[in-house]
């Protein structure tokens, strides 16, 4: 299928590694022009080289997306470099786990500041550019923890459910302008972040983190955890022209873990 992404102008937040990097490369392989943004300039430069090699056109904007001013700078800089913005993939996330009885409440604020507030802020900033062309796609990488709270994942869970509610509300606000807003809820996905989140448990049990990830995957109907490229393939579709009648929903990519609704 031709996703008709050639020449489309995209921003991918959290594009320096993990799922965001894979999303940036998936869009680039379809010929999109992609600005990747995160804090680490070195990693971003590496991804820009990969984007260019994959047939896209890369641009890097180092920024801490907790800061509203930095978000504005990224969006303005991308619009100046590319002459507009058609696609936003929001993927920057860094919420930590921890038992709710011991968790410093600040960890909840951190998760909300980057992911819930950051995703919404970036969406609000790109929408005027999309409205100019009466075409746009916004893809939020949320997470299945949003609908599966447990005592160890509340900062992630709260940020993700906030993102899902914003996805629905934003979609209602802009669907009449040709802008589609949707989310993906990955389950555990093979990135450094998944390793970092599992490390405390691995240390507690005196076990290897890779073993824990493998075991977590084996418990799923899918038999394994996801690879970031699998999440990126669905993100590229949700960002594409042929995706023309999907509004304000979430695609669960959790290895079949989720039961029923929500
Ligand atoms: N991996 C999983 O199992 C999983 C499951 C469900 C949902 N998700 C979600 O998927 C998204 C990506 O996760 P991932 O596993 O790919 O994580 P990752 O490999 O740790 O990547 C996170 C990205 O966010 C960037 N980032 C972190 N803090 C930032 C800040 N303050 N400002 C700007 N960028 C920032 C990071 O770059 P810098 O550190 O250089 O800034 C990096 O590019 C997250 O929203 C996560 O919640 C992941």
Detailed description of the structure:
Helix 3 packs parallel to helix 4 and helix 6 packs across helix 7. The chain contains 8 helices and 7 strands. It starts with 8 loop residues before the first strand and ends in a 9-residue tail after the last strand. It is of the alpha/beta class and 262 residues long. The chain has a 7-stranded parallel β-sheet with strand order 3-2-1-4-5-6-7, with helices on both faces. Helix content is 48%, strand content 15%. The longest helix is centred in the middle third of the chain and has 29 residues. It has one domain: NAD(P)-binding Rossmann-like Domain (Rossmann fold, 3-Layer(aba) Sandwich). The structure holds NADP nicotinamide-adenine-dinucleotide phosphate. NADP nicotinamide-adenine-dinucleotide phosphate binds next to helix 1, helix 4 and helix 6. The site of NADP nicotinamide-adenine-dinucleotide phosphate has 28 residues, from helix 1, helix 4 and helix 6.
| Unreliable stretches | none
Q: Fill in the CATH topology.
A: Rossmann fold
Reported for the largest beta sheet, the result is: 7 strands, parallel
**Name of the level-1 CATH class:** Alpha Beta
Estimate the helix proportion, in percent.
40-55%
SSE map:
Layout: E1 9-13, H1 18-29, E2 33-38, H2 41-53, E3 57-62, H3 68-82, E4 87-90, H4 105-133, E5 136-141, H5 154-174, E6 179-186, H6 192-205, H7 209-218, H8 228-238, E7 250-253
Structure summary:
With 262 residues, the protein is α/β, with parallel strands linked by helices.
């Amino acid at each position: 299928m031709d996703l008709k992404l050639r020449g489309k102008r995209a921003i991918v937040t959290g594009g320096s590694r993990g799922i965001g990097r894979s999303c940036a490369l998936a869009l680039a392989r379809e010929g999109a022009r992609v600005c990747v943004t995160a804090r680490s300039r070195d990693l971003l430069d590496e991804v820009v080289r990969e984007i260019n090699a994959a047939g896209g056109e890369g641009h890097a904007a180092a920024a801490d997306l907790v800061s509203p001013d930095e978000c504005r700078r990224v969006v303005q800089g991308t619009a100046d470099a590319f002459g507009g913005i058609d696609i936003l993939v929001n993927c920057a996330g860094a919420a930590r786990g921890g038992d709710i009885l011991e968790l410093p409440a600040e960890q909840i604020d951190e998760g909300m500041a980057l992911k819930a507030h950051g995703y919404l802020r970036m969406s609000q900033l790109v929408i005027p550019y999309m409205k100019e062309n009466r075409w746009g796609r916004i893809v939020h990488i949320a997470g299945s923890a949003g609908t599966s709270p447990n005592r160890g994942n509340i900062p992630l869970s709260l940020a993700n459910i906030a993102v899902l509610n914003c996805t629905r509300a934003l979609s209602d606000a802009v669907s009449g302008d040709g802008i589609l807003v949707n989310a993906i809820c990955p389950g555990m996905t093979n990135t450094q972040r998944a390793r970092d989140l599992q490390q405390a448990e691995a240390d507690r049990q005196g076990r290897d983190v890779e073993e824990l990830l493998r075991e977590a995957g084996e418990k799923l109907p899918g038999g394994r955890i996801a690879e970031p490229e699998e999440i990126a393939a669905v993100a590229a579709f949700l960002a594409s022209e042929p995706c023309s009648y999907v509004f304000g929903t979430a695609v669960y990519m959790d290895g079949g873990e989720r039961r029923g609704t929500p």
